[in-house]
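Below is how a single chain appears once it has passed through the pipeline. First comes the sequence as given, then the structure the pipeline wrote out for it. We keep one example in the README because the format questions we get most often are answered faster by looking than by reading.
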Amino acid sequence: MMKRRFSGYVIRISLLISYMLIVFALSGCGEEGEAIRESITGNVSAKAGTVQLYHVADNMVVPYEERYQLKQPDNLADAVKEVIEAMVLDEGIRIEKYLIDDSQNVTLYMHFSDEMTEEAKLLNKAALIKSLDELDTRSVNIILLDGNGDEIDTATFTDSSFYYYED
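Resulting structure:
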């Protein structure tokens, strides 16, 4: 069982390396190369089982081109942990802990610094939801905590919660 899981990771990593080599080779091909690269990116991502990570840039939620995470299809808890650790969030955001229930709903316990604007909070939530949505979660509950660790707000988000922040 362990060998099969390990060999799956080796295959995914080799696919990822192949993808990076192809993108590198096509990077100087002009506009046609750009179209080919986008096609290859989507195709390899689907096959390699990667999660595209999102971040906030210029008041928008955008894919972070250089950052993605491999999926762990049979271990949602580890996959969520890896995505959270790999994400680039604004300073002043702390994810204290997360829980996953049997229905694949994720609950994040978060703290925002008092200096963050409401727009920055909303955009960072959207980046988190879009990134976690690629793990096939059903919903993401965000519980906001104050400085003492007490719950101050709760909201549930799905893949369509941030429709207006889509590309």
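The beta strands are 50-57, 60-70, 93-100, 105-112, 139-145, 151-157.

See the next section for the split statistics.
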